[in-house]
Amino acid sequence: MATTCLNCDTQVADKFCPHCGQKATVDRLTWHHLLEETVHFFTHIEKGFLRTTKELITKPGAVHKNFLDGKRKTYHKPVSFLLIWVAVFLLVSALTKRFGSFDKETSSSFLNIGLELEAMIHKYQALIEMLILPFTALNGWLLLGYPKISYLEFLITGFYRFGVFYIFFSVLSILALIFGFNPESEISLYSFAVFFMGWSIYVFYDFFKLYNVKYLVLRIIAVMLTGIVIYSFLRTMFGKLFLTWGF
Q1: How far is residue 151 CA from its own chain's centroid?
Q2: For residues 239 and 247, what is the distance between their CA atoms, to the nearest angstrom?
Q3: Whole-angstrom Cα distance, residue 3 to residue 14?
Q4: How many other C-beta atoms are found inside a 10 Å radius of the C-beta of residue 133?
Q5: Are 186 and 108 in contact (CB under 8 A)?
Q6: Are residues 20 and 140 in the same domain?
Q7: Are residues 151 and 221 in the same domain?
Q8: Cβ atoms within 10 A of the Cβ of 173, count?
Q9: Are residues 136 and 235 in the same domain?
Q10: Range of the domain at 35
C-alpha cells in the first residue's frame, strides 16, 4: 500500500522515497535511534575521512592531484573535511584549557601586536584564518599554481591543507595536555610555525612536481615568504576589525 513521504510528501510504494530517498516508515526518535545514528556516523565516516586524513599526511600531492583529476568518491570532501577538523581542534583545545596543568595566564603576544588584540585574534582564530585563506590561496595560485590549475582548484586543495593544519594543532593540544606544557607559549607557537611551514613546503613540492612546474623550489620559497607577510598583515587587520566591531 502506498504511503506519503514525511519529508517531501511524495507517494511511496517501496521501502524508500523515489524522490528524496528517505525511508517510507519513520519511527519516533528514541535513545536506540540516537545510539544507532552515532554508531553509523563513526562506522561510515572512516572510509573516506580517515583515509583522506592519513593520505594527506603521508602523500598529500597524490590526494590533491587525484581529487582534481576527478577521483572524488575516494576522498572526503574538502570543505567538510576542514570543518570536522576545526571542530575537533576546538573541542581538544577547550579540554586542554580545562584540564591542563600548565600556567593558564595569557602568554606574550606571538607577533608583538598587543595583548588585547592577540586575545581577540586567538578567540576567533578559526574564523579569521578561514577569512585569510582565499587571499593566501590567491597568492599561491599566482606564484605557483598558474596556469597549471585554476584559482578555484588551488583554493579547494587549500581546504585540505588547512584541515591538516588543524590536525597538527589538535595533536599539539593533546601533547600539551599529556606533558603539561602551554600550547600557547611563544616557544610552542614558534616551533609549530616552523614545523607547519616545513610540511607546507613538502606538500607544495609533492603536489606541483606532478605538473612539471618550472623553477619549482624557487617558486615555493616565494609563496612561503609572501604568504607569511600576507597572513601576518591580514591576521592583524581582521583582529583589529573585530575589536572595532565589538566582538
Answers
A1: 18
A2: 10
A3: 9
A4: 18
A5: yes
A6: no
A7: yes
A8: 24
A9: yes
A10: 1-58
